[in-house]
Amino acid sequence: MKPITKKRFKAYLIDLAVSTAATAGVEYVLRKKIKSEAFHALVTPTAVMWALEYAQLRNSGRTIGYKTMGLAIENTDGTEPTPGQIVKRMAYRDTISTFDYIKDREAFEAQDGALLPHDRISGTVVKEQ
């Protein structure tokens, strides 16, 4: 695994921990209104994680995990990602990207881990700060 990929993985774990804590608070409030366990198991965690990630990337181009690990997400031309790119990146990463990894592990990383399939699709790249 390349050094940037290791940092990206650690950043993702940090973001997951932050999202899990936020999900616990949101679930506490929603449990009184929504009784479906399936909703709380499937929809709430994903919605909270995507909302947090989207808000952070729109504000500063970095999530808490990426800031901690010294990484930033940019367009290939060095500008901040657009809202459409952010959504496309998150959706691809959490769905199809897994199959890309299973299909061809060696070609999964490009540019020493700065470019993963969801980055190629959305037109973004991860750089060290």
TrEMBL record:
GO terms for cellular component: membrane. Keywords: Membrane, Transmembrane, Transmembrane helix. The keyword Transmembrane helix applies. InterPro entries: RDD. Pfam families: RDD (PF06271). It is a multi-pass membrane protein. Its main location: membrane. It comes from the Bacteria. It is found in: Membrane. Residues 7-91 form the RDD domain. This is RDD family protein. It comes from Bhargavaea ginsengi.
